[in-house]
Each structure stands twice: as structure tokens, then as C-alpha cells.
Amino acid sequence: MIQNSDARAVAALIVLWLLFFWRLFTPIASDQASLAKGDFSGQFVAFGAYQFERMSHGEIPLWNPYNNGGLPFIADTQAAAFYPPRWLTIGLSALGGGWSYNSLQLEMTLHVLLYSLLMYLFVRRLTLRDPRSPLAAFCAAIIIGYGGYTTGYPPLQLAVLEAAIWLPLALLGVLEATRRGRMAPTFIALAGFGLGMSWLAGHPQTSWFSTYLIAAWLAYRAYVERVGWRVFLGGLALLAVIAFGVTAVTLLPGLEYLLLTAREELGFAAKGNGFPIRDIAQFVFPGAVSQWSPLFVGLPALFFAAVAVFRNQGDSRFWLLAAFIGLLHSLGENSAFYSLTYNFVPGLRFFRGQERAAFVVANSLAILAGLGIATATTWPNHYYRKRALRLWTAFTGLIAAIAILALFLWTADPDAWGEFFSIAALSALISLASLLLLRPLMAEPGRLVWQLALIALIAFELFSVNMDHPAVYDSVPHERQLSMARPRLAQRVLDDGGDQPYRVDGFIGLEANHASIYGLMDMRGISPLFLKGPYHIIHRNYVDNPLAWELFAVKYVFSHKERLSVPTRVIDVDAQQDGAVYLHRLDNPRPFARLYYAADVVDSDQWARELMDDPRYDEREKLVIHQPPNLPLSGSASGGSARVLSFAPEEIVLEVDTAANALLSLSLPDHPGWTANIAGEPVRVLRAYAGLSAIEIPAGNHLVTLRFSPASYRIGALISAVSWVGLALVALRFLRRR
Fold first, then answer.
1. What DSSP letter does each residue of 167-233 carry, written as one string?
2. pLDDT for 692-727, tens place per residue?
3. CB within 8 Å of 648: residues ≥ 6 apart
């Protein structure tokens, strides 16, 4: 019977999932919807297209030359280069005809389904001894799957969603590991795997929240089950080791990259943003403050969460404290909590956007609601049931009074108050329906009709607020959102470009990270992680930037302007929605590789930038480098040539011919993962122009090879390979024993 109940619950969750996303699945074009363009299309679809292209040819995408002037793709966390579900999406896309906008949409929907199933499993085990455990787990799964957090911005910020969904699995591992006063290594391994998958998914802030929450849950469970502190510390260490091992392949390169990015320069003022205090109203009135309501879990969920706390059911105090701390943190600098913890909580200063702590609030309230349903439907004491219903009656009256007030305000000023009246009216109706349902449900909790009514009410409220949300979905098929085919101007550049590598400035014509789709090397990009040196060069003058065009070997500029500040020729023009886009070809672009015979040596990036900002400084006369050259330079120009023979993302081969010692300047971002050799002998890569690369070249004819293979990746890959093999063996042993 129990197995049948769980099977029916899983089937019902799949049906609800299909209903919620039916407009993404329907074959009827006029009914179709798709995820709105923005970060989803500009960041995730674009990077996914690049990963698809590389992996379809059996290559590991370590470096991406197409955005940000070049970036370590493996280390950009949001690329999720080694996230197993992304590999599955790529494989299925290859079988289905190629990468598309819909490929990532489907990946998103499957993660929402998995989120609800994992939450069902966790709450089911958490409430295993309660007669209404399947009902409690099912409702908790609906609440987390279709509440305001999961259905708001995370589908568009895909890494946020995919990092979030593994929390219930890790919590389940801790729960099972600590049953009966022990610390079972197999289930600690499960928890570590879940946490590691979260870190692989590509949103470190969400995974950071998960890490603290899982560690706190482990400590709480060890305390409740009277596990010794030495055993607890051993379990915590094992969990950390496994999580680190699972994700080391991207975590180590990511940490190395983070310390080299402009994000590292952000201070408290740039990181403290969070919810305004008034956003708390969206617990009850979703959409009353902002377009998204990540704190919204539904009114029945709030009632049952309160019941769990009131009855001190199971682990309710832990989840109440977690929800409260998450809420305080989500306010950012709008409360003293964030300021007081900023300097003391490890890792906190790396992240901005503190409102993302709504992740902790949403999960805690969903779990509390499950605990509340389990206890409210088994309450033996009529006094407590009546007391809870009286409190909900008073709450319903308050909501109704606010709705009536909103009605009067609406009649006085329809434009200002119409939307809030609609929100308040829906909340009042749901609150009243909850009150009418709770009386028979708590009196006869075993009747299937009341259980189904509760499920229907929870789903109806969440679907009414969040399904087809206009900030998340557009009423157009996915084919019309973003084409994988190159636009005409992008194709014109490729046809015109020649055989030597060059870059474009696609600020206007290419948008976001779309250069990764079209195979154009753009000095622009929207990835939140941007190497510090290139960032300051490119953002020195954001629109018309001759210095960046020079240093990054830009040959083509997409612009709304018909004339630029350097000599160019307009070779094409395209009419777009926001005006004409002119395609400029620079008259005298700098080549990707250029020889210098004189240099200015500086000891800091700031000095280099000040030198280059001097209008009297000619970047073609002298190279700005950060280490003194070992070879003596003539100080005057000598004949020589540098030609790129082959150009691949992780390997560049050049032929250099010079009559005197020279410095080879490369329009390649400086990163410790790049190494160089001349005729097979390693040579050092110098930092130039506060963010680019250079190599010393002795007189003569030489073959120069640059390769990108960071030690952080090689070490991380080895650790992860060992960890994944070990986890596979543990899983096989566990299954055989079962």
C-alpha cells in the first residue's frame, strides 16, 4: 500500500509538472510560450551553444575566445562545463538535430520536476512515522516546485535553479546517515554528492547557502540523535571531502579565476543589495511590491508552517530558525544582520544580490508546511485544533479587510490601485477557501476527498500566481526567440575577415554573449566574471574605445554611429528595431600578434593604465610590460614579421621572423593557464598592458606555440575522476547489499 501511494504521488507530480509547463510542450504553435529573452538567452543559451559545438567534436572547452576578449570557460561557474545534466542535454540535442533555444528550456523544466520529486522524497522520509506522510510530502513538493522562488527568476537565471534543486537530496543523505544515533558513511556520501552537484551546476552563491544549511542540519541531527562530537566532525569532514571531490574539476579553476576578476574589487556597497523591508508583504500579497515574489509559498503553506512551529513538530524549530536567518539575510543592508555578519561569515563577501537568500526561506517553509500537514491531520486534541482555526479565522478577516480597503481605493483611483485590489482579492478568496477546507480536513483527515481538496487548493493558488508569469514567459514559440543561424552582419564579418585572427566590438549588433553562438571573437560579453585587466581596458570608455580596439586587435565595430573616432569604412548597414546598425571596418587595425623592439616597464596595473591614458603615448611604438625582459632590446624598430599559422581555443601556433631580439605582443588575455614555448622549449609569458600577454623572442626564425591547460584544471580533473569512480563503487556496493 505504501509503495502504491508513493507511485501515485510521483505520477501525480509528473502530471502537475506537465500542466504547469504545458505551453512549453504543446505542439500547437499559436498556444506556445517560451522563456523570455535576457540572461537566459544571452548567457546560458549562448554558452550552451559553445559547449555543444566543442563537445560534439569530442573536445573539452577549457577556453572561450568568443566573449570578454577571451575567458577561461572551464572556470566560469555559470558555464557549468562539467555539470552532468548539461552533458545529457548536449547528447540529446545532438541526437535531435542540434543545439536550440528549446534544448535549455527542456533542461530547465526537468530540473523543476526533479526538485519536486527530491523534496517529496526528503519530506516523505522526514515524516515517515506519520499516517499522513505521503500527503505531507506531496504538498511540500508542490510548494517548492511551483512557489514564488522556483518559478520566478531562477528559470531565467538557470544556474540558480540548477544549483538549488540538489538541496533536498543532500538533506536526505544527512537524515538517513544520522538515524539511530550513528553517522552512516554511505549516506554521508549521498549528501556530499548532492552538495557537489549543486556546486557543479554553476551558481556558487546558491551552493554557498546550501553548504551552510546542510552543515547546520548535520550538526542539529547529530545533537538530536546524540551523536558524539568526534563522530560529527568526522561526518562533516567526509561530507566536505566528497563534495569537494565531485566538483574539484571546476571548483579549483573557478577559485583561481575569481581572484583574477573584476568581481574581486567590489566592496560592501556593491554587495549589500537585498529585499526592501516592504517585500515581506509578498508572503501574503504576491506581486504587490515587485514583478517576482520569491518569498511567496502560498497561504495554506503559511498556515501549516505555523502549525508545525506551534506544535513543535519534529524538526520544526530548526527550519523556523533557518527561515528566519534566511529572511534576515535576504534583506541585505536593509537590516543590521548583513552588516554584522559581513566580516565574520566565511565566503559572504564574495557575493552580491543578497535577496537570493530567499532560497533558504522557500525551502524551509516548504519543509515546515510538510511537517505541519503531518501533525495537523493527526491532532488528537480538539482544543488546539479550534485554537488554530480561530487564529486562521482572524487572519482571514484581516486579509478580507485589506481587500475591502483596496476595493475602495480602487474605485477612487483605478490606475493606482487596480492591480493591488486584484492581488488582495485573490489572497482573500484563497484564505477563505482555506478556512472552509481546514475544518473538515482536521476533523476527518483520513477522508480522501479532503486530502485531494487540500492538494487542489495549494496547486490552484500557486498556479494562479506563477503559471505563465509575464516576466518569465513570452507568448511566442522558442524558434522566434533566438535563432542559432548567424545574422547577416555577423556572416559578412566572417566572409570579409581574412585568414588572421581578429576581434569585433559587438556591443550593438551581437548582443550579450551571442558571439559564442556565431563563432565571432567579441571583446564584449555579459558574463558576470570578467578578467580584471581586460575589464578595465574595455570599460575605460564603454561605447567608443579606440584603446580597446587597438589592444584587442579589433577589426570590425558594430555601432549605431555612422562615424567613429578612428578612421573606418562602413561596409554594411542593417536596420534593427532600435535603429540602424553600421558595420565598420577599421582602416588600420592592429594585428593579433605584433613585434616590438622597445618597452616601458611598469610595476602595477594602475601605472600601466595611467601610461596608456596619456594622449602622447603611442601604443605602436612601445610595449608596456610588467616584468623586465631578459633579452636586450635595440630600442628602435627593426624588420620582422609575426604570423598566426593555426588558431584554436586552447592552442595558438605562430611563425615569427625577426632580425633582432623582440617582444611579441599578443591580443590574448593574461591568465596563468597559458604557457608558451619556442621550438619546444618553454618560455615565460609576460604581462602586458595591464591585462594582456607578451613573449620574448630572440633574433631568428621561430615557431611559437601557446597552450591553455591550467594546472588547477588538471589537478581538479584528477581529484574529480577519483571521487566519481569512488562514489560509483560505493553506490554499486550499496545496491548489491540491498
1. HHHHHHHHHHHTGGG---HHHHHHHHHHHHHHHHHT-HHHHHHHHHHHHHHHHHHHHHTT--HHHHH
2. 999 999 999 999 999 999 999 999 999 999 999 999
3. none
